[in-house]
Amino acid sequence: MPAIQFRVDGIPKAQPRVKAFRRGSHAGVYDPGTADYWKLQVIQAAKQSCLASKIEGPISLGLTFVMPRPKSHFKPDGSIKPKCIVYHTKKPDVDNLAKAVMDALSNIGSIWSDDCQVCLLTVSKAYHQAGVNPGCNVRIDAL
Q1: Of 9, 30, 100, 134, which residue is 20 to 30 A from 44 by alpha carbon distance?
Q2: 140 near 4, Cβ under 8 Å?
Q3: Tens digit of pLDDT for each residue in 33-68?
Q4: What is the CATH T-level fold of the domain 4-142, as seen in this structure?
Q5: What per-residue confidence (pLDDT) applies to 29?
């Protein structure tokens, strides 16, 4: 089976932690929903990649996150300062970014049955370069 590859445009969001609350004698948890729009973008991009059939068995997943640069990385003419770093070393963490994408792909149901099938996960995050918009490059291979 050939690799499934697609790009998700937008600002990557991490899977938020579940929040706990208490009202009187009742306690509960909820998902803040801060990554819902990002997950929807992932689902739409995956569906447009013409997925043929569900992958059974072990899966390799490669995620390359391209994060937006802060304004301090730019010169007044809009070009990137030469001494600015390439890798994104701030929050969100790569594991939380990956979890949001994996949850979104699991919700589709046509790529894999569950994200527990992912046996090899490669994740990176870097700042965007000139001519490249923020987003995520996704590659899915059957092992």
Answers
A1: 30
A2: yes
A3: 788 999 999 999 999 886 667 889 999 999 999 999
A4: 60s Ribosomal Protein L30; Chain: A; (3.30.1330)
A5: 79
Instruction: Tell me the three-class secondary structure of 76-125, residue by residue.
Output: CCCCECCCCCCECCCCCCHHHHHHHHHHHHHHHCCCCCCHHHEEEEEEEE
14 residue type, one letter: A
Of 93, 94, 71, nearest to 84 by C-alpha is 71
Dist. CA 97–CA 30, nearest whole Å: 19
CA distance 93 to 125: 9
Enter the DSSP assignment of 42. H
Q: What is the pTM of this model?
A: 0.88
**How far apart are alpha carbons 101 and 97 in whole angstroms?**
7
